[in-house]
Specification:
With 491 residues, the protein is an alpha/beta fold. The protein folds into two domains: 2-60 and 363-474, no CATH class; 67-360, Spore Coat Polysaccharide Biosynthesis Protein SpsA, Chain A (Alpha-Beta Complex). Strands 3-2-1-4-7-6-8-5 form an eight-stranded mixed beta sheet, sandwiched between helices. The protein has helices at residues 2-26, 28-64, 68-75, 96-107, 129-140, 163-180, 203-213, 237-254, 270-275, 286-297, 321-335, 341-350, 357-383, 386-390, 392-396, 398-428, 436-474; strands at residues 84-91, 116-123, 146-152, 188-192, 198-199, 220-227, 266-269, 303-312. The longest helix is centred in the C-terminal third of the chain and has 39 residues, at 436-474. The protein is built from 17 helices and eight strands. α1 crosses α12 (341-350). It is 59% helix and 11% strand. α4 (96-107) links the parallel β1 (84-91) and β2.
């Protein structure tokens, strides 16, 4: 059964792409009808997503204006003091300046340091990790109620080389400290941060408020908004559009929490982590997979709570344009290995009668459809023009004569979503350092080139890496090493 569902996603994608190409040569009219139906579906989807994006943007503006710590003290005057935050930061070969920036942001947040516990989790296989440990301990050892470092041993049987095993090791090393501090695991909120992450100063207070305001926080994951803004003005336009798209997508998902899953930095009760045996040590996509592990551990009683306070991240930045594009592709390919969750979800849903039929199969279909759309959407839209190029008889038919006009109208209408996205980007992204005139010129240039850049980004950083991951799963060639994305220190 598992092997069947490992084959299905890639098989469906390749069947679709090849089938559309074959249909272009043997029945242009049928292809044109399929493309028009799909384009209308895609247009409706764009309008819905644009609406969620705009509403999500205003929700973000509203939440970042709140003094969450003050509100926390006023609404939960006694309960908030019992809460502790555990922050786990996995590190592997990052420059110490990147880790230092992360720790400074935690220290400078508006949440009391005597309620913050920080673990920097290193890999034993990293040469020079001991020097980083000594330096960071010297600088930050007394800045929090507890500051710890861990060294995850190499080559543990049954583990991949990746983030999941490292943060799981760190969490297990924290257990004795939890007992020494006499802490209740249900009162410890655990956040995992990548090395390049920079928390908003209101993050811990806002998560605390959401946690205390929830009647059942143990069965929740708390998901902040990831914003790839740390180095947004230092990366090529193509990768900039891709990273902005990632931020916008997460803002969109935050407006539909019933469909959301964990992504990158997220928070969860330490008690829940104990129940799930922490994170997976066998997959390179530990964030989204952790949602499913929690979902099935608690028999469907698990949801994501959106936090509209951001965590700022570094976008991919290589040595040059080609290197940046290569690293962006590799990062997306790793993300889209989440397709490997499909067999896991099917197997666990099939055998679990404690979860409602509609609840579990709806989530399964959403997971499958999201990966299918990632891989095929760009090809549907590109292949739509083929009948006009290769079939003279089709061009002379009624459908062929009207097809270009109808298709152009649909595609043009979809640019409403692009305009809304660029408007949000202009208001959301921090101003470009330097002269205001250069900033304005840069914005105008990006608006002009957006119609070319966005389709290219969709092909190279969505469809192709998704197809790559699905094909690897289909051919039983899984990723066993976590590809660490290149980042450059930015103050």
């Amino acid at each position: 059964m598992r092997r069947f569902w490992e084959i299905v996603p890639g098989l469906a994608t390749w069947t679709t792409i090849i089938g559309l190409l074959v249909l272009a040569f043997i029945n242009s009219h049928a292809l044109a009808v399929i493309i028009l139906v799909y384009a209308i579906f895609w247009l409706v989807k764009i309008f819905i997503m644009t609406g969620y994006l705009v509403v999500g943007y205003y929700q973000y503006r509203k939440d970042v204006a709140v003094d969450w710590f003050n509100r926390l003290k006023n609404d939960f005057p006694r309960r908030w003091r019992k809460l502790y935050h555990l922050v786990i930061i996995p590190a592997y070969r990052e420059e110490i300046s990147i880790l230092r920036r992360n720790l400074k942001a935690i220290r400078e947040s508006d949440y009391p340091a005597d309620r913050l516990i920080v673990i920097v989790a290193f890999e034993a296989r990293e040469e020079g990790a001991d020097k980083k440990i000594a330096q960071l301990t010297y600088e930050f050892g007394s800045q929090f109620v507890r500051f710890m470092t861990t060294l995850h041993p190499a080559n543990i049987a049954g583990e991949i080389k990746g983030k999941g095993p490292n943060i799981t090791w760190a969490a297990r090393q924290f257990l004795p400290e939890l007992k020494r501090m006499n802490l209740d695991p249900e009162q410890v909120i655990t956040t995992t941060l990548d090395a390049d992450n920079v928390v908003d100063r209101r993050y811990f207070a806002s998560v605390s408020y959401a946690y205390l305001d929830d009647p059942d926080p143990i069965h929740k994951s708390f998901q902040p908004l990831p914003m790839y803004f740390n180095n947004i003005w230092r990366i090529p336009m193509l990768t900039k559009a891709t990273n902005l798209g990632s931020s916008f997508w997460q803002m969109n998902v935050a407006m539909r929490p019933q469909n959301a899953r964990n992504f990158s930095a997220h928070a969860q009760s330490f008690a829940a982590l104990i129940r799930t045996d922490y994170w997976s040590v066998t997959t390179i996509v530990e964030d989204g997979h952790q949602f499913w592990r929690s979902f099935f551990t608690f028999n469907g009683n698990h949801l994501v709570v959106p936090i509209f306070v951001p965590i700022y991240m570094d976008a991919v930045q290589g040595e040059n344009l080609f290197d940046s594009m290569r690293e962006q592709y590799l990062q997306r390919r790793r993300w889209y290995w989440g397709v490997s969750d499909i067999p896991y979800v099917f197997i666990n849903a099939w055998g679990n009668k404690k979860i409602g039929f509609w609840r579990k199969w709806k989530r399964f279909f959403q997971l499958w459809e999201s990966h299918y759309s990632l891989a095929t959407q760009s090809f549907f839209l590109m292949i739509g023009w083929l009948p006009l190029q290769i079939d003279a008889q089709f061009r002379q038919s009624v459908l062929g004569y009207n097809f270009p006009t109808i298709y152009r109208i649909i595609l043009f209408a979809a640019w409403i979503g692009m305009i809304a996205s660029m408007w949000v980007a202009s208001n959301l992204v921090p101003p470009r350092p330097g002269k205001k005139s250069i900033y304005i010129v840069t914005l105008i240039k990006e608006w002009i080139f957006a119609p070319l850049i966005l389709p290219l980004a969709g092909i190279f950083f969505s469809s192709l890496p998704a197809i790559d991951s699905q094909t690897r799963l289909m051919l039983n060639k899984p990723f066993t090493v976590f590809n660490v994305t290149k980042k450059q220190a930015v103050e």
